[in-house]
Design brief:
Helices cover 69% and strands 3% of the residues. By secondary structure, it is mainly α. The protein has a two-stranded antiparallel sheet. Helix 1 packs antiparallel against helix 2 (33-51), helix 1 (2-24) runs antiparallel to helix 4 (83-99) and helix 3 (61-75) runs antiparallel to helix 4 (83-99). The relative contact order is 0.10.
Length: 153
Protein backbone atom coordinates (compact mmCIF):
# COMPACT_ATOMS: atom_id res chain seq x y z
CA UNK A 1 0.00 0.00 0.00
CA UNK A 2 2.90 2.34 0.74
CA UNK A 3 4.25 2.00 -2.81
CA UNK A 4 0.83 2.80 -4.26
CA UNK A 5 0.50 5.82 -1.96
CA UNK A 6 3.92 7.14 -3.02
CA UNK A 7 3.21 6.58 -6.72
CA UNK A 8 -0.18 8.31 -6.52
CA UNK A 9 1.20 11.20 -4.49
CA UNK A 10 4.07 11.72 -6.94
CA UNK A 11 1.70 11.73 -9.93
CA UNK A 12 -0.67 14.04 -8.07
CA UNK A 13 2.02 16.58 -7.20
CA UNK A 14 3.40 16.48 -10.75
CA UNK A 15 -0.02 17.00 -12.33
CA UNK A 16 -0.81 19.85 -9.93
CA UNK A 17 2.55 21.45 -10.78
CA UNK A 18 1.67 21.40 -14.48
CA UNK A 19 -1.80 22.74 -13.73
CA UNK A 20 -0.60 25.62 -11.55
CA UNK A 21 2.35 26.39 -13.83
CA UNK A 22 0.08 26.34 -16.84
CA UNK A 23 -2.21 28.90 -15.27
CA UNK A 24 0.74 31.02 -14.14
CA UNK A 25 2.12 31.09 -17.69
CA UNK A 26 -1.30 31.64 -19.25
CA UNK A 27 -1.55 28.31 -21.07
CA UNK A 28 -4.94 27.88 -22.72
CA UNK A 29 -7.53 26.04 -20.60
CA UNK A 30 -7.91 23.40 -23.33
CA UNK A 31 -4.23 22.45 -22.98
CA UNK A 32 -4.60 22.13 -19.19
CA UNK A 33 -7.47 19.61 -19.34
CA UNK A 34 -5.22 16.54 -19.01
CA UNK A 35 -3.39 18.02 -16.01
CA UNK A 36 -6.71 18.92 -14.40
CA UNK A 37 -8.16 15.41 -14.82
CA UNK A 38 -4.94 13.67 -13.71
CA UNK A 39 -4.87 15.94 -10.64
CA UNK A 40 -8.49 15.11 -9.84
CA UNK A 41 -8.10 11.38 -10.54
CA UNK A 42 -4.96 10.94 -8.48
CA UNK A 43 -6.49 13.04 -5.70
CA UNK A 44 -9.57 10.81 -5.55
CA UNK A 45 -7.35 7.70 -5.60
CA UNK A 46 -5.20 9.13 -2.78
CA UNK A 47 -8.32 9.85 -0.75
CA UNK A 48 -9.46 6.25 -1.22
CA UNK A 49 -6.06 4.84 -0.24
CA UNK A 50 -5.63 7.10 2.77
CA UNK A 51 -9.18 6.69 4.04
CA UNK A 52 -9.28 2.94 3.64
CA UNK A 53 -12.71 3.72 2.15
CA UNK A 54 -13.99 4.64 5.62
CA UNK A 55 -16.28 7.59 6.29
CA UNK A 56 -14.28 8.46 9.41
CA UNK A 57 -11.68 10.11 7.17
CA UNK A 58 -14.23 12.67 5.95
CA UNK A 59 -14.73 14.21 9.40
CA UNK A 60 -11.10 14.07 10.47
CA UNK A 61 -8.76 16.98 9.86
CA UNK A 62 -7.13 15.23 6.91
CA UNK A 63 -10.43 14.65 5.12
CA UNK A 64 -11.76 18.11 5.94
CA UNK A 65 -8.66 19.70 4.42
CA UNK A 66 -9.15 17.61 1.29
CA UNK A 67 -12.79 18.67 1.05
CA UNK A 68 -11.68 22.28 1.51
CA UNK A 69 -9.18 21.94 -1.33
CA UNK A 70 -11.89 20.46 -3.52
CA UNK A 71 -14.21 23.37 -2.70
CA UNK A 72 -11.48 25.85 -3.63
CA UNK A 73 -10.88 24.06 -6.92
CA UNK A 74 -14.59 24.37 -7.67
CA UNK A 75 -14.25 28.14 -7.21
CA UNK A 76 -11.73 28.46 -10.05
CA UNK A 77 -14.30 28.57 -12.89
CA UNK A 78 -16.41 31.03 -10.89
CA UNK A 79 -13.49 33.31 -9.97
CA UNK A 80 -11.29 32.85 -13.02
CA UNK A 81 -9.28 36.04 -12.51
CA UNK A 82 -8.27 34.74 -9.04
CA UNK A 83 -7.38 31.22 -10.19
CA UNK A 84 -3.65 31.54 -9.46
CA UNK A 85 -4.06 32.70 -5.83
CA UNK A 86 -6.73 30.01 -5.35
CA UNK A 87 -4.46 27.28 -6.72
CA UNK A 88 -1.58 28.56 -4.57
CA UNK A 89 -3.84 28.36 -1.53
CA UNK A 90 -4.66 24.75 -2.46
CA UNK A 91 -0.91 23.98 -2.59
CA UNK A 92 -0.35 25.66 0.80
CA UNK A 93 -3.21 23.72 2.39
CA UNK A 94 -1.86 20.48 0.92
CA UNK A 95 1.65 21.13 2.19
CA UNK A 96 0.58 22.16 5.67
CA UNK A 97 -1.96 19.33 5.88
CA UNK A 98 0.57 16.71 4.87
CA UNK A 99 3.02 17.77 7.55
CA UNK A 100 0.77 18.79 10.42
CA UNK A 101 0.73 16.96 13.71
CA UNK A 102 -1.37 13.82 14.00
CA UNK A 103 -3.43 15.46 16.73
CA UNK A 104 -4.89 17.71 14.02
CA UNK A 105 -4.80 15.31 11.06
CA UNK A 106 -6.65 12.57 12.96
CA UNK A 107 -8.96 14.79 15.02
CA UNK A 108 -12.61 13.97 14.35
CA UNK A 109 -15.05 16.86 14.55
CA UNK A 110 -17.89 14.34 15.03
CA UNK A 111 -16.34 12.42 17.94
CA UNK A 112 -14.36 15.43 19.22
CA UNK A 113 -11.20 13.44 19.77
CA UNK A 114 -8.20 12.04 17.93
CA UNK A 115 -8.93 8.70 16.28
CA UNK A 116 -6.08 6.72 14.73
CA UNK A 117 -7.67 4.21 12.42
CA UNK A 118 -4.45 2.73 11.06
CA UNK A 119 -5.01 3.84 7.45
CA UNK A 120 -2.96 6.22 5.37
CA UNK A 121 0.73 7.02 5.72
CA UNK A 122 2.20 5.44 8.86
CA UNK A 123 -0.97 3.40 9.44
CA UNK A 124 0.92 0.13 9.90
CA UNK A 125 3.07 1.74 12.59
CA UNK A 126 -0.06 2.98 14.37
CA UNK A 127 -1.68 -0.48 14.32
CA UNK A 128 1.50 -2.15 15.55
CA UNK A 129 1.91 0.40 18.35
CA UNK A 130 -1.67 -0.20 19.48
CA UNK A 131 -1.89 -4.00 19.15
CA UNK A 132 1.72 -5.16 18.90
CA UNK A 133 3.45 -6.65 15.88
CA UNK A 134 1.31 -7.17 12.80
CA UNK A 135 -0.72 -10.28 12.15
CA UNK A 136 1.86 -11.36 9.57
CA UNK A 137 4.63 -11.30 12.18
CA UNK A 138 2.46 -13.33 14.59
CA UNK A 139 1.66 -15.90 11.91
CA UNK A 140 5.35 -16.24 11.07
CA UNK A 141 6.16 -16.77 14.76
CA UNK A 142 3.35 -19.33 15.08
CA UNK A 143 4.58 -21.14 11.95
CA UNK A 144 8.13 -21.24 13.36
CA UNK A 145 6.85 -22.76 16.61
CA UNK A 146 4.74 -25.31 14.74
CA UNK A 147 7.68 -26.24 12.49
CA UNK A 148 9.98 -26.73 15.46
CA UNK A 149 7.34 -28.92 17.22
CA UNK A 150 6.92 -31.06 14.09
CA UNK A 151 10.72 -31.38 13.76
CA UNK A 152 10.97 -32.61 17.36
CA UNK A 153 8.38 -35.36 16.75
Amino acid sequence: MRTLNIALRTAHIGAMAFLLGGHAFDVSPERLQVSLWVTIGTGVALGAVESGLRLLWLHQGRGLLTLGKLALLCLVPLAWEYRIPILLLVVIIASVGSHMSGRFRYYSIVYRRVIHDGYGPGGKKIREAEVGPGIGARREAEADVETSVQTQR
